[in-house]
Amino acid sequence: MSGHVIVVDLGYGDAGKGTVVDWLCATREVRAVVRFNGGAQAGHNVVLPDGRHHTFAQFGAGTLRGVPTHLSRFVVVDPPALAAEAEHLARLGVPDPFSLITVDRDALLATPYHAEAGRRRELARGEERHGSCGMGVGEVMAYWLEHGLSAPRAGDAPVVLARKLRMLREALGVQGPPVEDCVAAYRAFQERVRLVDSSFTGRLVASGAVVFEGAQGVLLDEHWGFDPYTTWSTTTFDNAEELLGGVGAVRLGVLRTYTTRHGPGPLVTEDPALEPPEPHNVTGPWQGPFRSGHFDAVAHRYAAEAAGGVDVLALTHLDVPVSRMCVAYDPPVSFACDGERTARMMRARPVYEEGVSDWVAAVSDVMGAPVWIASHGPTAESKRALVPGPR
Hints:
By secondary structure, this protein is α/β, with parallel strands linked by helices. The chain is built from eleven helices and 16 strands. The chain has helices spanning 17-27, 79-91, 112-124, 137-147, 158-172, 179-192, 200-207, 238-244, 297-306, 341-347, 359-367; strands at residues 4-9, 32-35, 44-47, 53-56, 69-71, 101-104, 194-196, 210-213, 249-256, 258-262, 290-296, 312-316, 325-330, 349-353, 371-375, 383-385.
C-alpha cells in the first residue's frame, strides 16, 4: 500500500475500527498510526490469533504489530491512562511501549479535575443524562473553548503547567489531587514520551504509508450528531485531512451488519430481542447500556454524506446471524441541522427489508461504495479483501 488510509466509523462507534486498523497493519507496510480525534475514552479492541487481547484507547491499534503511534494535536491526552495502557501492552509482550509513541506538544491534557467536573455535571442531569465515558474529555474541550491558551497542554513546562492547573481547578470548582502531584505525574509523562511539534505529521506522511485511526462515530459528531447525545469531537475525515495537508488518502468507512450504540439517544432500529454476542462491549457506569438494533441504512447513509463521502467500506460482524435492514423511516426524517433533528429521530420508526443474506452486496448497494474489507471475526486472519486495495 503506497497510499494513506483514514478509518472512520459511520455509526455511533463500536463498529470495529481497531480490528480494521490491526488488519491494515498486519497485511501491508505501515509507517505509523495517527490518532486524530477523541481521547482516552476510545475503546478499540484487537485480538491476536493466540488469544491476546487489548482495548486500545490512546495507543494506535497497530501497536501489537510494532507500528508506532502518533497522537496529533487533535487528541486529548490523558497521561495516567496512557501509562496504564502501556503497562498492559508490556504484559502482552510489547517491549517498551513508550518507545512506539510520539505526542504533539500542543495536544490538550485531560486531568483528574476535568474528570471530576464532567462526572458531577452528568450526575446533576439525573434522568436526563446524556451518556458519558466519565473521563473528562468533554470538559477538556469546553474549558479550552472558554479559556483558550490557559488550557493545559502536553508540552507545557512544569511551572506553566502548575499555574494552569491551579487556575483550572479553581474555575471548575473541584477538589481532586494536589496540583503538585499532577505536575509530577505529567513531568514523568514528558520524560517517557517523545514530544514533537505539529510539523511532525507532515514528515510522517512523506516517509511512508500512514493509517489515520478515528475514534467514536460520525453519528456522534459534535456538528452532525444528535444533540445532546454527541461527543465533543470531530469524528469525520476532516481532522485527518487537515493533518495530511492536501496529500490524498483513501476514505474508509467502517460498519457492522447491525447498528449499535452506548447509552441514551436515538437508535431507530433498536430491538431488545436482538442479542448478538458482545464480549468487549458492556454496560458502563457512565456510558450506560450497550444497545443493539438492525442495520440502519438511513442513518449510515446520512453519516457517509455528512462525512463528505467514502471511497470504500469495511463490513464487520459478518459472522453474526442477522437478516433485517432498515431502508426507510416512517415518517421520513429530515436531517437538517436545526433544533428538532434529534426529536425527529426519536419519533422515527423503521421500515425493514427482510431476509438479507448477502450482506456485502446489500450494504455496498445502499451505501453506494464497495466493501473492501469483509470481517467474519475479531482477528486479522478472519478478514479478507474483496476488491484490490488502495494504491
